[in-house]
Design goal:
The chain contains 18 helices and eight strands. The chain is an alpha/beta fold and about 425 residues long. The chain folds into two domains: about 280 residues, Rossmann fold (3-Layer(aba) Sandwich); about 110 residues, no CATH class.
Length: about 425
Amino acid sequence: MKKFLTALVLLFSFFTLFAQIPSKKELLSTPELTAAFLYAYPVTVAENTPAPKGYIPFYISHYGRHGSRWLTSDGDYVNIYEVFNKAYSDSVLTPLGKDVRRRLAIICEDARGRSGDLTSLGVRQHRAIAERMYKNYPQVFAGDAKIDAKSTTVIRCILSMDAFCEKLKEENPDLEITRQASQRYMYYMNHTGKEYERWIRDTTLAWRANYRFLHELANPERLMSVLFTNPGYCKENMSSAAVMSGLFQIASDMQNVDPGLSLYDLFTPREMFDLWQAMNYRYYVTLSTSPESGGLAVANAINLLTDILDKAHEAVNGNGTAANLRFGHDGNITPLAGLMQLDDNRSSEKDPLKIYTVWNASVCTPKASNIQLVFFRHKKNKDVIVKILHNEREVSIPVETDIYPYYHWQDVECFYREVMEK
């Protein structure tokens, strides 16, 4: 295991980054981009470079994150609202603070009892991804093609699977689609290794960096001064950094829900950038290719990539499956993108202040993020090629090819088998 982890770290260090990472200017000017893992899926058109002459699509392997959701705990809303409610009772809210309290009351009521649930936007996201997949590769979904869909046992993932499959069924009612959500499949659908769990429990890297971003860079005192009339009250009754962070989390997630309210006006562009950096760094260290984890984070996706390769091998050899669809979480697709070394997921950066230049959670893991492997077979010589899509964008992997964005399947399978064997 240690040899494998060391090999992964070396691989991440050597390969060139073909990133489409938003610049600092773009992040400062577009608040939604600072939502990190809360960013709503932005894709409306899937890339689809025509395959080389004679190749026909016949199989798709997919892993997708659930769509847009409310925050995962009612407390994420209520705890912040109660701060403002108490301050209102104590007569220490500014006019802006009172208006924030009003907005939070509406937001809390909308979210009440829905924590972690899929929103209507989440449903639309998966229906749209399914529609684009169907229209781009109709040969895969012709006739009574057999589709195997699996989800983790979490409701938002199950409903994402249902939205996706229902759209495919609307496009072609003859499709034979099986859907399963069972503990039986969680060992690869939502796996975390014991060594990783120990590391997460013991490490303080992410939290130290988070503290620095919140206290030294974002500077919550400015925000507190425009919301509360008494600075001493803030020091005695709350953690200003926690209130700022909580407000920003709610603000970031509002793009995923329907009340039509925003809290972005509370923050300066620079504050949003630094608050985003805190979330982005934490995700990079704990889920992606950061050297700090020594490869433990991406190793969580070994079972998942093994399942992808095994089922693809069976489909290539003619088992009759047209597509394997999988629906899970950010904690699964982020390590998978790193393990697969997709073009903007190969970085190895230790400096918290430089992470944003090489990796961006909003790009890697927005709501409804997905990885697709689309397989093509030559109609005469039966040769098989594959292209890989990350959020419906054609991406590169460190495998030689003379037909980019397509790769020879034999080379891809061999590469990933060797990575995991090491």
